[in-house]
């Protein structure tokens, strides 16, 4: 709890999982963009709180924390250009429905349609598909409030564009995004149970390329196997689903939740039932909260060509992973040209870990995972927990120096800096760091022992 200006107690601000407690000097839930500009111009330091689905301190601020979520979001579709301009704080669920009703679709969705568009883009969040770029790859333009409170727009083709899309909140407050659209398309989803681990390694390319989007889930253990999720475009006639068996995996006899044994009511429709893309590409329905937030998350992204070897390395940790992992997911994504994207210039595979919410038990196993994947140049998801030394993270991004120069030019006084960005990018705004397991103010690891929670 904390005190409001009138002395009354107000509930603590937390992220969705509750492992981060935000304690800014001021929380500013603005009513319109004019007010947002005034708040930004007057602040000495400021960050934006989106839908709160980050597990580390990327959105944290000890000064001003701004929320735009109380403003009614706008959606403006240009049918001729096949683009949509939308408020940055809109959720993917709302945007997906709006463009579908106009006869269009977004090319990709994350697992959770509940997350905000601007926050997802800023952290390089992704869905899945060998030939499908992450969510940020659809961006055609971004509109920012700069440190002086004035608006500026960065468009595809501008010199600053590839450095501005995945920006970690360090370049300003995103008020609107313009995204490319596809004509609406229908999908079917199937799940296969019990894919042997050896088969997943031996047939990895075929498994991940066999549909528009695929995922493989495992809970590890003594003899780990996968549940194989397949999301197929109905118009694609080249993919032979369903088959009763896929490399030893059996077609599921009912709906499934990604975590075995959990009620699948929150999961999107399976068993080949046809529906629009925005109701099949996410794993979860927007009308359900997919869990109570009792979890932590990490994800490490490596070159797709290294997937089989990386899986073998992780299998060696299976016994250590099982007690602290609720579920792990393996997904692929296409390369892109955005400087701070985890898929920058390499087709990518992501190894995601949904941990139990017990950081002291998770942290040493997380470190083992990072060591096992170390030979493959892992890029941790910007919005999730990791303890990889920040110098190693920086080394995985060849354009990091150019991004620093862009940040210096756009925000010379580092108004949009916080602990997270200062540790990553350096600069003048060094703030205090508190370990997650002590008070819940997680940080993104600059050394073993100081790490954070996406």
Walk me through what this model shows.
- This protein is an alpha+beta fold and 454 residues long.
- The chain is 22% helix and 25% strand.
- It has 13 helices and 24 strands.
- Strands 15, 16, 17, 18, 19, 20, 21, 22, 23 and 24 form a ten-stranded antiparallel beta sheet that branches. It has a five-stranded antiparallel beta sheet with strand order 8-9-13-11-12.
- Strand 3 and strand 4 form a beta hairpin.
- The longest helix is centred in the C-terminal third of the chain and has 15 residues.
- It is globular, with a radius of gyration of 21 Å.
- The two termini are 23 Å apart.
- The N terminus and C terminus are likely disordered.
Relative strand content: 15-25%
Q: Number of DSSP strands?
A: 24
The parts where pLDDT drops under 50 for at least 5 residues are 1-10, 428-454
- Mean pLDDT comes to 90
Main β sheet profile: 10 strands, antiparallel
Q: C-alpha Rg, in Å?
A: 21 Å
User: Termini distance?
Assistant: 23 Å
CATH class of one domain: Alpha Beta
Report the CATH topology name of one domain. Uridine Diphospho-n-acetylenolpyruvylglucosamine Reductase, domain 3
Overall SS class: alpha+beta
Helix content: 10-25%
What is the annotated CATH architecture of one domain?
2-Layer Sandwich
Q: What labels describe this entry?
A:
disordered C terminus, 5-stranded antiparallel β-sheet, 454 residues, 10-stranded antiparallel β-sheet, globular, 24 strands, alpha+beta
Write the layout of secondary structure elements.
Layout: E1 2-3, E2 9-10, E3 13-14, E4 21-22, E5 26-29, H1 33-42, E6 46-48, E7 64-67, E8 75-78, E9 83-87, H2 92-101, E10 104-105, H3 117-122, E11 139-145, E12 151-155, H4 161-164, E13 173-180, E14 182-183, E15 186-196, H5 197-202, H6 204-209, E16 213-218, E17 225-233, E18 245-246, E19 249-251, E20 275-276, E21 296-303, H7 307-315, H8 318-321, E22 325-333, E23 348-355, H9 359-373, E24 379-380, H10 390-395, H11 400-410, H12 419-425, H13 436-439
């Amino acid at each position: 709890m904390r005190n409001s200006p009138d002395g009354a107690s107000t509930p603590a601000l937390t992220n969705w999982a509750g492992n981060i407690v935000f304690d800014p000097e001021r929380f500013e839930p603005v009513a319109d963009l004019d007010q947002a500009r005034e708040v930004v111009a007057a602040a000495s330091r400021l960050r934006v709180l989106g839908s709160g689905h980050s597990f580390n301190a990327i959105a944290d601020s000890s000064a001003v924390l701004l929320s735009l979520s109380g403003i009614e979001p706008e959606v403006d579709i240009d049918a001729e250009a096949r683009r949509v301009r939308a408020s940055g704080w809109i959720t993917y669920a709302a945007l997906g429905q709006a463009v579908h009703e106009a006869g269009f679709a977004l090319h990709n969705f994350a697992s959770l349609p509940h997350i905000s568009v601007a926050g997802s883009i800023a952290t390089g969040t992704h869905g899945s598909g060998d030939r499908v770029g992450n969510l940020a790859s659809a961006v055609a333009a971004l509109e920012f409030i700069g440190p002086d409170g004035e608006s500026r727009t960065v468009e595809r083709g501008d010199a600053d564009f590839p450095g501005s899309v995945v920006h970690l909140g360090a370049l300003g407050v995103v008020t609107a995004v313009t995204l490319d659209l596809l004509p609406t398309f229908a999908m079917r989803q199937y799940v296969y149970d019990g894919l042997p681990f050896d088969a997943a390694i031996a047939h990895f390319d075929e498994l991940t390329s066999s549909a528009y989007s695929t995922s493989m889930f495992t809970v590890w253990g003594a003899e780990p196997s996968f549940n194989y999720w397949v999301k197929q475009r109905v118009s694609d006639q080249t993919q032979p689903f369903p088959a009763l068996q896929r490399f030893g995996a059996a077609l599921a006899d009912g709906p499934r939740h990604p975590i075995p044994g959990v009620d699948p009511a929150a999961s999107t429709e399976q068993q080949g039932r046809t529906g629009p893309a925005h109701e099949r590409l996410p794993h979860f329905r927007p009308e359900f909260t997919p869990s109570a937030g009792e979890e932590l998350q990490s994800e490490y992204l490596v070159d797709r060509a290294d997937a089989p070897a990386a899986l073998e390395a992780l299998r060696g940790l299976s016994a250590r992973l099982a007690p602290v992992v609720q579920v792990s997911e393996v997904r692929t994504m296409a390369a892109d040209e955005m400087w701070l994207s985890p898929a920058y210039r390499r087709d990518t595979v992501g190894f995601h870990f949904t941990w139990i919410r017990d950081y002291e038990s998770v942290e040493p196993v997380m470190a083992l995972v990072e060591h096992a994947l170390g030979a493959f140049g892992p890029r941790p998801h910007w919005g999730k927990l990791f303890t990889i030394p920040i110098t190693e993270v920086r080394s995985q991004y060849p354009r990091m120096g150019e991004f620093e120069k862009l940040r210096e030019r756009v925000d010379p006084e580092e108004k949009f800096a916080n602990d997270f960005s200062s540790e990553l990018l350096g600069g003048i705004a060094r703030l205090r760091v508190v370990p997650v397991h002590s008070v819940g103010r997680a940080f993104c690891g600059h050394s073993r022992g100081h790490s954070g929670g996406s």
